[in-house]
Structure formats: C-alpha cells, structure tokens
Write a structure and sequence with these properties.
Layout lengths: L8 E7 L4 H15 L2 E4 L17 E2 H15 L6 E7 L3 E3 L2 E4 L1 E3 L5 E5 L10 H20 L17 H7 L5 H15 L1
Parallel strand pairs: 1-2, 1-4, 3-5, 4-8
Antiparallel strand pairs: 5-6, 7-8
Helix pairs in contact: 1-3, 3-4
Length: 188
C-alpha cells in the first residue's frame, strides 16, 4: 500500500526522552506500511499537568491534544501530515486503567506509550515488534479504521501486551482494503 499515501508526511515526536534509534526504525517501518515520508518533529516536553499524581501515569488525551494544538498553531493540513507522539511512560485514558495509545480517528494525531510494551525478559526484538504494532494500530485509527474483530489483525484491540503479540503488525485483508480506500480519500 505504499503508493496510496504518497505525499503524506509523518511527524514522529518524542515526548520526553525517547531513543532516537527506535524512532528512526519506527519511521522506516511506518513509511513502508503507510506510504508516508517520516521525519523527526520538534520534541514535546513531558508536562507534569498530564501526570496523574496517584498512579504516576500520563493522560494520553492530553498528549494528543498538545499535538493537535501545535498542528493548529502551525496551520498544518491533517490530510497531508500525520503526527505520532512516542512517550516512554505509562498512559491512561478516562475509564481505562491504562492504554497503549490513543488517536484521533480520521484525524491527524496519535500517541503511543512505551512503558507497558517492555517485555519482562528485556527482549529488544519483542519490544520493537510491540512498539511497531501499537504505532501501526494508532495510525490505522488516524487513517480512519475502527477496531477489527479479527484477533490476528493489527487493528484488533489490545487489552494486554500478550494481545499485541498475538495480533502482530499486519492488517487483515478487509482492513487492508478499507485502509487503501480511506488513505486515498483522506489525502484527496
């Protein structure tokens, strides 16, 4: 599907300290899957106001809102530029103990949190695969996809890291077809 997103750029945004090598690898893989041209955007600071003092987790929606506000301030076109924030923290959303990420469905922006994607055995390959799966999942939402009932599809919801491992990083056939239509329409 690389040609369908031609011309769309993907801004990778570190929120707080994030490994530059991980971001570069992520950009290459996402470009391959979405046909984007990725680049490192200016980092965002990890603000204390986004942190829940009781749990120590960060509110995913606040980070997405910060990306949207920055895009609005710069007058960027969401159909030509997607932004993916990567934060090395534990994220939560209202009514959810934690989330791996959050996105504006059919919008411009998403965030993934790395903290819960780290495997207990510190397996770097498994960690990178989980990060890629969640990034692809959230950008699938940005493109306009909903959750998929197929547990082998990257758009299937993950409630635990083991769900992310099971689903992998690829779209099922119906989601691939829907994504092709959505990305073309989103860019038009």
């Amino acid at each position: 599907m690389p040609d369908s997103g031609a011309g769309r750029r993907l801004e990778l945004v570190a929120v707080g300290p994030v490994d530059a090598g991980l971001l570069a690898e992520l950009g290459r893989e996402l470009d391959r899957r979405f046909g984007t041209r990725s680049f490192r955007g200016p980092p965002l600071p990890l603000l204390d106001e986004w942190r829940d003092p009781g749990s120590g987790q960060y509110h995913s929606g606040s980070i997405v809102d910060a990306l949207i506000a920055r895009a609005d301030a710069l007058g960027t076109d969401g159909s030509r530029l997607w932004s993916l924030a990567v934060a090395d923290v534990d994220l939560y959303a209202p009514d959810r103990t934690f989330v791996f990420g959050e996105a504006t469905v059919g919008g411009c922006c998403a965030v993934i949190g790395l903290a819960r994607l780290r495997p207990a055995g510190r397996d770097p390959a498994l960690f990178r695969e989980r990060v890629l799966a969640e990034a692809v999942h959230e950008l699938g939402h940005v493109a306009g996809l909903d959750h998929c009932p197929d547990p082998g599809c990257v758009m299937h919801v993950s409630r635990e890291a083991i769900d992310t491992d099971r689903k992998g990083t690829e779209f099922c056939s119906p989601c691939t077809d829907a994504l092709a239509r959505l990305v073309v329409n989103h860019a038009a």
